[in-house]
Design brief:
9 helices, mainly alpha, 2 domains
Length: 201
Amino acid sequence: MAKQKQIKVQPVGALQAIPQLEQRTDEQLESESKHRVAAKAILGARAAERYDSQAAKAYFNEALAGCHPQERPALRQMMKASLALAERRPDELKDAMEKLGQEAPSGRQLALLRLMGLIVPPPGAGILMRVRGIALLLLLVIVLLAVGFGLASLIALPFGGASTGAALLIGLVIVLAVLGVLTLLGRRRQARLRETRAAGG
């Protein structure tokens, strides 16, 4: 799935250190003592990007416990946006991002997040939602294999065609290759966004 934009907040008080800490590793942020509130907020946002809502909530609660009262509204809004992402709630994510004064995710990103919420329900979801997620995942796999099979059969036509087994195997390779390329492009795009933010921040 396309990666969401990292959730940031307008710097207020201790949160002003967020831009200068963004390039640090998780281990460095964990050991940060001077700008602890900002470090915990970044760790919470990163946990949300991994869809780990429990870790995100824990980090933000630590940040809230150590921040000044005037910082709490902005930090709570950042927490709200992060948890909406982690728990695959696209409508709430869009509203929260707009309230933070940031550009909301694109319609495609929100649609992918909604689809992911259906396939991989957030922790605590009921058994029916989990069964539905498994069924949708199987359906998605079947559709992808069918598309790959069709492409493999089409490619093999000029060479005399291919057996069903060979076409399925080639189709699987095609699907995996396409998914791999999309993942690589997504990571490169995310890296460029981080570099742009660092240069501008």
